[in-house]
């Protein structure tokens, strides 16, 4: 979870400097790392790839609970924006990056409350 918190903080800094692509990248990693931490904290295998983590998160924590489907959608949404920010020729709009950073903060806080704070 430490990596997730650091990535979320970095996303805010990048957003504040107007780096929408960088902010989306770090927001995705905040969400991704929080998802990994949630899987570990709940005793599930984390997987070795991004796709493996996304699938495990969906299969083990969202489909049959305890998390709402919205958390799974946030993770997939973040992956889409990170792909655009990192690999597409187009830049992410600053308003979209702002939304991603806010969603990352929401996701990280939810994973902390659900899995980490209870330990």
UniProtKB/TrEMBL annotation:
Domain (HEPN): residue spans on this chain: 2-111
Superkingdom field: Bacteria
What Pfam families would the database entry show? Answer: HEPN
According to its UniProt record, which protein family does this protein belong to? Belongs to the UPF0332 family.
* Protein name in UniProt: HEPN domain-containing protein
Lineage, opening ranks: Bacteria, Pseudomonadati, Pseudomonadota, Betaproteobacteria, Rhodocyclales
């Amino acid at each position: 979870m430490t990596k997730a918190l650091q990535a979320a903080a970095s996303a805010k800094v990048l957003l504040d400097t107007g780096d929408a692509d960088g902010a989306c990248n770090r927001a995705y990693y905040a969400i991704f790392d929080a998802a990994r931490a949630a899987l570990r904290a709940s005793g599930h295998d984390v997987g070795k790839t991004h796709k493996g983590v996304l699938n495990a998160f969906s299969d083990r924590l969202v489909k049959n609970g305890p998390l709402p489907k919205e958390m799974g959608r946030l993770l997939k949404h973040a992956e889409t924006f990170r792909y655009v920010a990192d690999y597409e020729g187009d830049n992410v709009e600053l308003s979209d990056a702002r939304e991603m950073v806010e969603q990352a903060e929401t996701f990280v806080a939810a994973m902390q409350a659900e899995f980490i704070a209870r330990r």
